[in-house]
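Listing S7. Sequence submitted for prediction.
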Amino acid sequence: MKVLVTGGSGYLGTHIKRHFRADDFSRTTDRDLLNLLDTRIASDYDVVIHLAAKLDKDPAETEQVFLNNVGGTVNLLQSIKEGAVFIFASTKDVYGRFAGKYDAVPEDCPTLYTGQSALEWSKLIAERYVEFYGNTRNFRTCIFRLSTVYGPAAAGTSPNFVSHYANLVNTGDPVVFPADGKPVRDFLHVDDFASACSSFIDSVIRHGLYNLGGGPDNALSLRELFEKMQEVSGYQGMVDENNSLPDPVPVNYVSDISLVTRELDWKPEISIDEGLKTLFAPPIL
């Protein structure tokens, strides 16, 4: 099985590429999603896992975000061969404020516009293209609306907030929380994300759309997460109690993973304690 990972040199892509022993499609390998000559290479692969995206919420970057995340995805989809598998990394943030109405957010949560940035909206638009091309060109598609995926540091990549917290525990610098650290998120280790990709590849599902996160069993408040990091690392962290970041929207988010569990026979296997320990290992080169 020949696998291509776009964004394979990024934070998550480094791990996914290694898991599948895949080839990398990224600017690091001098390949550009906006170059049709480059994206044609996707036709040589049995599986394409599309992680590459412009992750920028700056309004000044709106057009570039749409160009990269929608246009680049379409360029790639046009080269997927019949019978192949295309896995698209979308985001939980397509739900916007509606997600705040659920204890655990299901796939039928509304995705109407509620102030999402171009980043989230570009992901939602790209989902529709994934479904269109998969159905009209007869290849299998899977859309994962990812919650908070974390994993060991990878050299040369930008960490998400989980790795940022781990870095603060390492250095002893104070963490600044939104809403006093009360917002809740569910956390998914990158190895469990990789196993979800494998579960879809090995399944008989033609077209799937799933919320993918740690689910209720792997959900903590941000303050609890920071305390757990100190516990598993043995280091003492610091909290800046005098300052605060803006409240996130929604304040709490936990994925309902019952659909992906039922259809793909998948569930997270790496506990919070086990997963957080990997954040304090040497960076992956």
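Caption to Listing S7: primary sequence and predicted structure tokens for the chain studied. The chain has one domain: 3-280. The longest strand covers residues 85-91.
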